[in-house]
Amino acid sequence: MIAMVFFDEETEEICSELGYTLILPPDSLRRRLDSKIVTTRLGDEAGAPSVPNVLGRADTYAELTDLTGYPELTPYEGGWCGNDLFPGALSDTHRETAIGHVRRLGDRLAKEGYKGFLEIDVLVDIDSDQVYLGELNPRISGASSMTNVTAGAYADVPLFLFHLLEFMDVDYAVDVEEINERWRELAAVDVWAQLIMKEPTDSVERILVAPRTGTWQLAEDGTLNFAQVSNDWHDVTHEDEAFFLRVYAPGDYRFKGADLGILVTKGRMQTADGLTERSRRYINGIRSHYESEPLPEPPKIMPIAYVK
Questions:
Q1: Residue 207's closest CA among 142, 162, 265, 252?
Q2: How many other β-carbons are positioned within 10 Å of the β-carbon of residue 288?
Q3: Nearest to 42, CA basis, from 95, 129, 110, 97
Q4: Looking at residues 262-278, what average pLDDT do you find?
Q5: What CATH number is given for 9-54+89-189 in this structure?
Q6: Angle at Cα 270 formed by Cα 269 and Cα 275, nearest 5°?
Q7: If you compute the radius of gyration of the chain from its CA atoms, what whole number of angstroms results?
Q8: What residue spans define the domains of the chain?
Q9: What backbone phi and psi angles, to 5 degrees, belong to 182?
């Protein structure tokens, strides 16, 4: 059984040739549902309205409501570079409305033949106080690591286990209402953040030393030190601890936009004023543990004159 983030018809053909079962909805269905126009239509049919089709303008990326475009984390203006997960993001009323939207859209997607994991963004209009569907991600996405192991999901089972059960020959029964109610209560204690760390510079260098995957400790003087090998970021219990998942290792190359790693910690990473000081200490701390060397200059080719 194979699961992955991105795939296409060629991937499906390869899995079929090798005798693997691709436990994801068909590529053709995923591509159709990825259309914002299709999402809006299906949401409207289900009674879950999408954001009005109106263009607006933001003067700066700092005005947006997510970890976006910070030059310390990404070289791309407007580029996604993390998430803050905290109870105050939605009021109780907004959360109730959002859950209703998501469930109605989910039921409508089932009629389209979709089953398994997906993610739905919701947005709140702070002027009108209306809750809208933002977009549909009919796949595993960059935010899955956060949504799969929230306090509720981690106390019971990760959401992805339900995905596996959908594609396995297993008879099971769960009380969906009871689970959702319990997870809604546990959501009040979830405060997590993740930083998606890309290489922001234009140079290309070979990595000699890179920070290890595991738990890291933030000291009072702002330095970041490796604490222990770990593969579970729920070992992190305090804001001065973080889990770092290394992507590029010694021998790999760092270049503009390269995914260096993902850092997960308790507490907020940004406020209305931007990145917190603690967040900047984590970013600087991880970067301080990289050592790399420039690529050697290519040999110069001297012109040679040939005389007959």
A1: 252
A2: 11
A3: 110
A4: 90
A5: 3.30.470
A6: 95
A7: 23
A8: 9-54+89-189, 192-293
A9: -65, -40
Average pLDDT estimate for 169-186: 83
**Among the ranges given (129-143, 144-158, 160-174), the one the predictor scored with the smallest mean pLDDT:** 144-158
Cα dihedral sign, 91-78-35-8: negative
Q: Which tokens go with 89?
A: 């993001």
Average pLDDT over residues 244-261: 94
For residue 23, give the nearest of 118, 137, 116 by alpha carbon.
116
**248 three-class SS:** coil
Q: Which of 246, 243, 244 is nearest to 259 (CA)?
A: 246
**What are the tens digits of pLDDT across the range 187-240?**
666 788 899 999 999 889 999 999 999 999 999 898 999 999 998 887 888 899
Q: How many CA atoms lie within 13 A of 186 on its CB side?
A: 14
For 179, 196, 239, the CA distances from 219, given in Å and listed in that order, are 39, 22, 11
At 29, the amino acid letter reads L
Q: State the Cα–Cα distance between residues 141 and 194, nearest whole angstrom.
A: 14
Query: pTM of the prediction?
Result: 0.79
For the chain, strand residue ranges (E) read 82-85, 119-124, 131-137, 192-198, 205-209, 214-218, 224-228, 241-246, 253-254, 259-266, 270-271, 274-275, 291-294
pLDDT of residue 87: 77
Tens of pLDDT along 59-102? 765 565 768 889 999 999 888 888 888 877 888 899 889 989 99
Distance CA 91, CA 97 (A): 10
Q: Report the pLDDT averaged over residues 286-304.
A: 82
